[in-house]
């Protein structure tokens, strides 16, 4: 029974030695020890430091600096004594509106006079002798664009003023749109939840029904791909024939940078016919020679559907992952915000025109206290204005390093949470496969047992894999930043080198994700450290590389169809409902009075995609886990009474294998 059968993969020393039979192995090992202890200690120490950074940021930071506007005296509007005064009023907005840019507004706010005695303001020409209709924008009173602006001295046209106001409004005033968005969400939230519930039901039904329709569905999808390619060949041939009869050739066109012009020459369509025909023929040959492995992939998909049906709680584990990811992101965002506002505001003396008489004795840009009154009246327009936040002090000097620490903490914690979810699900699904009598031998609480086991023994291994992936992702972010800064460079060699580096890092990230995913499965089953698990998983997959490729592509095709089905179905239903094209639901909902009818549609589509991705990610993890267990089962066992196969009878029939009867126990068989 242990000989090479049809469909088995060839293996050599370069792919490692096949797994040996272990009489004590009965699925995920219960008696295991902690792995990668050094990395675990390092990770816990890093998390402790991350918490310390958050505490320091909370102690020294003041997010009110970005949440509330501040006047010239340094007082916050809408807070404390000014609780009933939420809006910031500029006494002369034209003194700063023309020089304003978005970056300055974002960093330091509009540096205009906001608090002066009325008589003094009039004497120094700080308070305009006219009033303009204004509207609040992020707590600031800004003139309306349709206001009639008076003629101002020194300004030949009011166009520049209108442009300045328009720029400020574009950068600050999102209030009206935000209010409308909230109104639409408040009016349609119930029906959005209904759409998300439909997405949940569709995703669940699709996964559970795969045990019945996986084979026909895969066949329909494959025939659909072949049909699309066949139609493409037909269409391209018709275009080629028409252009050939017209005599349109590339020799008449020559070389041109207008790529659309090549659509009108026969050689373009002839090349398309050849490429599509090669793809069609290659796919047909693969289907003929790999039909056995496609049957194995379909059987594994059916078995994965059964596993999910036996452990329905696994479908909702992504909610735990989502909550943990949300905590990590919110903690990082709040820490970064508090760190960015950790300095104290600094004020300096400033005047609109320092060359006027009376200003020559004033040392401009020197520190001042905005609360001290009055200012030097001999210098027109002299006032104490906000300049920046102080950069002195240990926290401020280390601000950049602390922000880098926070970014590393964000990537590491996010990847660790994702790794935790993969390892927990792998442990639960592995317990399903290695249960000889299903469902009798399946543990009572497989998901919770796997969760506790993973946290207790393998925190360090998950941190190790997450750290490797985080470093690669940070390197990609740095490279993207450099590429963005050098985008204006016209050196083609430098751009080519940068593109190659980005491509290499992208491939490296994909490979590490693939390796980590399978390493976590081996960790969940055998309880070994990260490096050993990654090596064993990689060698096992290399010994079965053809099966890996076939299963991966069949699964991707099936899950892609599932996502399109769920997201497309919810999107179409949402469109017809929110545009009032579904009648019979009541007068209030036949024509919803929404400001933006596309908003609830997009929310429904996005939510459906998130739900479908969460459900199908569980199913994909189940397929990968069962596949590795299936490969281990083939190498460890031979179907004898002492070494029976754990795979289902459908896979045994496909492989031409069977379990020999147990002496004196006719009831034992694969379920």
UniProtKB/TrEMBL annotation:
GO CC terms, sorted = apical plasma membrane
Q: What gene name is listed for this protein?
A: SLC44A4
Q: Which domain of life is it from?
A: Eukaryota
Q: Which InterPro entries match?
A: Choline_transptr-like
UniProt organism field = Neovison vison (American mink)
Identify its protein family: Belongs to the CTL (choline transporter-like) family.
**Which Pfam families is this protein grouped with?**
Choline_transpo (PF04515)
Membrane topology note: Multi-pass membrane protein
What protein does this entry describe? Choline transporter-like protein
Which terms under GO biological process does the entry name? choline transport
Function comment? Choline transporter that plays a role in the choline-acetylcholine system and is required to the efferent innervation of hair cells in the olivocochlear bundle for the maintenance of physiological function of outer hair cells and the protection of hair cells from acoustic injury. Also described as a thiamine pyrophosphate transporter in colon, may mediate the absorption of microbiota-generated thiamine pyrophosphate and contribute to host thiamine (vitamin B1) homeostasis.
What would you give as a GO molecular function for this chain, any one?
A: antiporter activity
């Amino acid at each position: 029974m242990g000989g090479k059968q049809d469909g088995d993969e060839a293996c050599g020393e370069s792919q490692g030695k096949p797994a040996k039979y272990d009489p004590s192995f009965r699925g995920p090992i219960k008696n295991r020890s902690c792995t990668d202890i050094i990395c675990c200690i390092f990770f816990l120490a890093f998390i402790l430091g991350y918490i310390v950074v958050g505490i320091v940021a909370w102690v020294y930071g003041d997010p009110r600096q970005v949440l509330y506007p501040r006047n010239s005296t340094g007082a916050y509007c809408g807070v404390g004594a000014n609780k009933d005064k939420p809006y910031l009023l500029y006494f002369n907005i034209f003194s700063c509106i023309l020089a304003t840019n978005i970056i300055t507004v974002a960093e330091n706010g509009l540096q205009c006079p906001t608090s002066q005695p009325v008589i003094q303001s009039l004497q120094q020409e700080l308070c305009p002798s006219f009033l303009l209709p204004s509207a609040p924008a992020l707590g600031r009173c800004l003139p309306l664009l349709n206001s009639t602006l008076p003629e101002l001295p020194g300004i030949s046209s009011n166009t520049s003023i209108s442009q300045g106001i328009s720029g400020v409004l574009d950068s600050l005033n999102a209030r009206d749109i935000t209010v409308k968005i909230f109104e639409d969400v408040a009016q349609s939230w119930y029906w959005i939840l209904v759409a998300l519930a439909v997405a949940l039901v569709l995703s669940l039904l699709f996964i559970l029904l795969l045990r019945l329709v996986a084979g026909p569905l895969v066949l329909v999808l494959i025939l659909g791909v072949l049909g699309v390619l066949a139609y493409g060949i037909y269409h391209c041939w018709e275009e080629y024939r028409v252009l050939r009869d017209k005599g349109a050739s590339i020799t008449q066109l020559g070389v041109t940078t207008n790529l659309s012009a090549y659509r009108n020459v026969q050689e373009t369509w002839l090349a398309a016919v050849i490429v599509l025909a090669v793809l069609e023929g290659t796919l047909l040959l693969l289907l003929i020679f790999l039909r056995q492995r496609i049957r194995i992939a379909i059987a594994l998909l059916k078995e994965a559907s059964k596993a999910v049906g036996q452990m329905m709680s696994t479908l909702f584990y992504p909610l735990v992952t989502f909550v943990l990811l949300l905590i990590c992101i919110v903690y990082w965002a709040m820490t970064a915000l508090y760190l960015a506002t950790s300095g104290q505001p600094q004020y300096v003396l400033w005047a609109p025109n320092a060359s006027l008489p009376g200003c020559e004795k004033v040392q401009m840009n020197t520190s001042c206290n905005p609360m001290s009154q009055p200012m030097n009246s001999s210098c027109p327009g002299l006032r104490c204005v906000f300049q920046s936040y102080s950069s002195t002090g240990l926290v401020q000097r280390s601000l950049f390093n602390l922000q880098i620490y926070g970014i590393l903490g964000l990537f590491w914690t996010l990847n660790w949470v994702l790794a935790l979810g993969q390892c927990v699900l792998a442990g639960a699904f592995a317990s399903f496969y290695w249960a000889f009598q299903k469902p009798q031998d399946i543990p009572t609480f497989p998901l919770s047992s796997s969760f506790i086991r993973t946290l207790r023994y393998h925190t360090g291994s998950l941190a190790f894999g997450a750290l490797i992936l985080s470093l690669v992702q940070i390197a990609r972010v740095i490279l993207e930043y450099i590429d963005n800064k050098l985008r204006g460079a016209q050196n083609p060699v430098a751009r080519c080198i940068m593109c190659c580096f980005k491509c290499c890092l992208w491939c490296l990230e994909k490979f590490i994700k693939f390796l980590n995913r399978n390493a976590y499965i081996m960790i969940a089953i055998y309880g070994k450290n990260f490096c050993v698990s990654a090596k064993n998983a990689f060698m096992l997959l290399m010994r079965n590389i053809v099966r890996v490729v076939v299963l991966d592509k069949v699964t991707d095709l099936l899950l892609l169809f599932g996502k399109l089905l769920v997201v497309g179905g919810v999107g179409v239903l949402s469109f017809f409902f929110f545009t009032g094209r579904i009648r019979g639901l009541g007068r209030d909902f036949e024509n919803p009075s929404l400001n933006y009818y596309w908003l609830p549609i997009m929310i429904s589509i996005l939510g459906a995609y998130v739900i479908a991705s969460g459900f199908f990610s569980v199913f994909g993890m189940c397929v990968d886990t069962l596949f590795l267990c299936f490969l281990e089962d083939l190498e460890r066992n031979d179907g004898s009474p002492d070494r029976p196969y754990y795979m289902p009878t459908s896979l045994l029939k496909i492989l031409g294998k069977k379990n020999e009867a147990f002496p004196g126990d006719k009831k034992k068989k694969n379920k």
